[in-house]
Design a protein that fits this description.
four-stranded mixed β-sheet; disordered C terminus; alpha+beta; about 260 residues
Length: about 260
Amino acid sequence: MAGNGGDDLKLLGTCVSPHTLRVRLALRLKGVSYHYVEQDPKKENTTGELLLPGKLPVMLIHGGKPVRQSSNILQYLDDVFAGVGPNLLPVDSYERAVARYWADFIDDTLVEAMYKAAWGETEIEKAEGKHQEAAAVVALEGALRECYTPFFGGKNAGYVDVVLGSLLPWVHATDVIRGVKTFDPVRTPLLATWTDRFDELKAAQSVMPDVTRAVDYAMAMSLHRSRQRKMVDGTILWFIWVCCIALIFYMTWMAI
């Protein structure tokens, strides 16, 4: 199949979403052309086409057929555009399994820890998230050390690099907000060097949102969650107040 997807290949997503970014990075790395349709995360079906709701706001439409979920899309691109540009996943079966493991680790462990550290319900939960995040980063440092190569995928960026690289705008934004480096040059020198190397990729520079935009979006999310929490707290207080009034009336009635 030709590497030029053209009008036959359409991507729906939001530019600040890591799930959208990883697909755009993969398409750029493989050199496959596509039509990108930016979606408004605050609205549904802004283009009149189905957009998968929830935490995975990305959809690839190829030949009129939808392909959902970012990691699934990456593997689909490798299969459909085999021989076009570099492979994202290794050819060796064992190495493919290892790559999938670390990609899942990033999504299931690192991302969850980062989320808890940034938006935990309590300070204790945030502290626990930071501890889990630090442990996950150290584990990734060890995985990169075992590669003995510039990227997780070897000499070129591959599947794991794309998955982790899609988080870099949020990592940089978090570093600015917290005043600390997630991939610290002293504690995790390999990841710190990898970050600089990935940021310098032309594929990354062409699709990554700037740090300022990511910071603004992160701050807006934090404010939105704070307002939601206050609304929930207010609703709980109102419910307690109503229950107390009802109890007072009941006790007064029984005393008559």
